[in-house]
Amino acid sequence: MFAVFAALGANILVAISKFVGYALSGSAAMLNESIHSVVDCGNQILLLFGDRRSKQKSSNLHQFGEARAKYFFSMIVAMFLFFGGGVIGVMEAYDKLVHPAHTVENTGIVIAILIAGMLIEGSSLRIAFKEIAELNTGKLPIFRFLHESRHSEILVIFAEDFCAIIGLLLALLGTVLTLVTGNPMFDAISGMLIGILLMGAAIFLTREFYSLIVGERVTDSDLTKILAAFERSDIERVINVKTVHLGPTEILIAAKIDLVNELVIPDYDVVNQIEAEIRKNLADKKCYIYIEIDEFDENYQR
Fold this sequence. Notes:
Mean pLDDT: 84
Radius of gyration: 25 Å
Transmembrane segments: 71-89, 109-129, 154-179, 185-205
Largest sheet: 3 strands, mixed
Order of helices and strands: HHHHHHHHEEHE
Domain Cation efflux protein transmembrane: 4-212
Number of strands: 3
Protein name: Cation transporter
CATH architecture of the largest domain: Up-down Bundle
GO biological process, one term: zinc ion transport
InterPro entries: Cation_efflux, Cation_efflux_TM, Cation_efflux_TMD_sf, SLC30A9
Structural class: mainly alpha
Helix content: 55-70%
């Protein structure tokens, strides 16, 4: 969550500077960037609230706790803030586009604010990369890691910071072209592109969070560690293993195994040893493990 705090601090500073820039210039791109930064601040506040809810202890109603609260609040961030902010930005830019008489003033100040914003957002993105490097123990390519990661908050922060840099570049390009040509249409177009960028990020994030809320299995690397615990001489066959992420670091594991006919130790000791091995292999996760002993029947209908 350090990346969330870092992004919140950065976005508060950037939002204030952008609104000052908009007030001085009347730039559509700067207005969209201001909306973008306000959206980002809302993102971090909701992520922090979701993190707090996810740490609630188990209750009679939520017997596995509320770890998936992170996914729920991440979905709200994607749909209402990212998409909503993008729609508002496009509407404002469209209004400027159909009324080309609008002017962009104090472009020098606008350019300075945009460059400062890029520096601040760049430092936030650097922190996000550092957090990703710590989580990416399998050394996967970054976009594959983001797709497979069960840490919704790091996905939001990366998408947010990445879009912020792209949005600032678009705003800078639109402002420079407006300054050079004297045509404010470039400012309006860059503002519209920023809004479309936000909506595109919202669609991408929503698809990822939908999958997490419905329930995703563990990653391939974690599944390999789980299956390794069943490689024992006293197990005749692993009939089935099912897993689901209850949260970024909480896993439910259900397995059905067929033991050999003549055991050296009691069957419950076998189960206990398997559970201990799984928890050892997944020391960074909280595991809920349920193992059933059965006889394999190839004609069994589930």
